[in-house]
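U., I forgot to send this yesterday:
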Amino acid sequence: MESRCTCGALLPEDARFCHKCGKPQFEEDVARLTAQEATPPAAPPIAAPAAPPSGATISFKNARAVLITMVAAAGGLLASVVIALIAASLAPFVLCAAGFVAAKLYTSATDSLSTAAGARLGWMTGLWMFLVLMVALALGAIAVTSPAGWEQLKNSAAQFPQASQLLALGPHDFLIGILKQLPFSFFFLTLLPGLGGMIGAKFSARRRPS
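Result:
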């Protein structure tokens, strides 16, 4: 007797599946396939997100980094003013120390800090110091435009021979001389704190227990 599938295809003798539609022809095959369809496939394991490189978020978008570098810059500026009155030759060490402190403050609540991230923290610290310097120079430039302000500046700088030479040129030439020094000031105020930040990051990595 010919056997046919429900799709109408003529089946060979003892065929377990329809060669046309693939439907199983034996009860055990139907039960097995039904059980397989009822069991949901196992979900693939979710890979844990890769940890970002150490210090990868050190930027002006990092509120913690911004706050720490601003605090370090404020301390560095205050120390620089004091050191300038005592021993101006120590000013580079103060700038390095500002970057070092920024890196130490940041690593106090983090696992690690790479030397590149420490350099970025120091550079940000130096940048805040440079911006404060720019604001101070802008206010000073406004002040010296008046005769009274110029005379007051000359009297205040009489004890600094190098400044007295610039003041002898007149207000206009004095401001031009200050502007010419800005690129060097930017390089000086950002490079040294950046170096201090690198040292601070290395020092913290060595002292942190494994």
